[in-house]
Design a protein that fits this description.
The protein is α/β, with parallel strands linked by helices. The chain has one domain: TIM Barrel (Alpha-Beta Barrel). It is about 40% helix and about 20% strand. It contains nine helices and eight strands. An eight-stranded parallel beta sheet has the order 1-2-3-4-5-6-7-8. Helix 3 links the parallel strand 3 and strand 4. Helix 8 packs across helix 9. The chain is globular, with a radius of gyration of 17 Å. It binds zinc ion (ZN).
Amino acid sequence: MELIDNHTHLQDGPFQGKEEFYLDRARQLGVNKMICVGQDPEFNRGAIELSQRFEQVYAMVGYCPDVAKDYDQKAEDELIEQLQIPGVVAVGEIGLDYYWDESPREQQREVFARQIEVAYELKMPVDIHTRDAFADCYDILKNSNLEYGAVLHSFNGDVSWLEKFLDLNVCFSYSGVVSFTKATEVHEAAKKTPMDRLLVETDAPFLTPKPYRGKQNEPGNVYYVARAIAELKDIPLEEVAKATYENTMRVYGLN
Ligand SMILES: [Zn+2]
């Protein structure tokens, strides 16, 4: 059985200098590939560096909503250059965050929409962060060309949002939240997510799944995310692994 963690931050502090240790532990749980996600200039560089050091690590780069206020022509030029480096497979994470509101909302929306255009021009998918902003996120995606695919990262919407987004060329990536006992709306959404639109991730070092909740998360734990989905859908874990593996390979064009 093979799994891919399609959204992890292996460049983050807790993993620095111990990447090989965590890659090894992931391998023991069948996690042989992962995508290291950027969000600002420092994390973008870190993601690329790891994708160049380790064969099983891919990268994505983008300006997340927190740093949307810093996005200018120079930032975009650098991003476009980075997106053409082998091993960089998507624009992300990008999106809207109305919980932290680190950038003005108007600017978050502009920078999000603009980066989707950049991705389209380069024929690449996008990986989306959205918090307290489903309505605006949906509007932007509906008015964007998503021909090359999009993933809603750590999807935590309910069934009605799932059904709306299903009309778009969007996949749904579940994180450790799907394993939390009280996340009943996410459970229902996961149950109804079609197998060909399903992805799994850790968002490590955050969102640790059961049974390790409260501890630091790591890429190998995507195994427990997949297991939680298998239990919810009442199907074998192998089936979840196979579908999410194939979907991730397809959406991000991995080889
Ligand atoms: Zn993330």
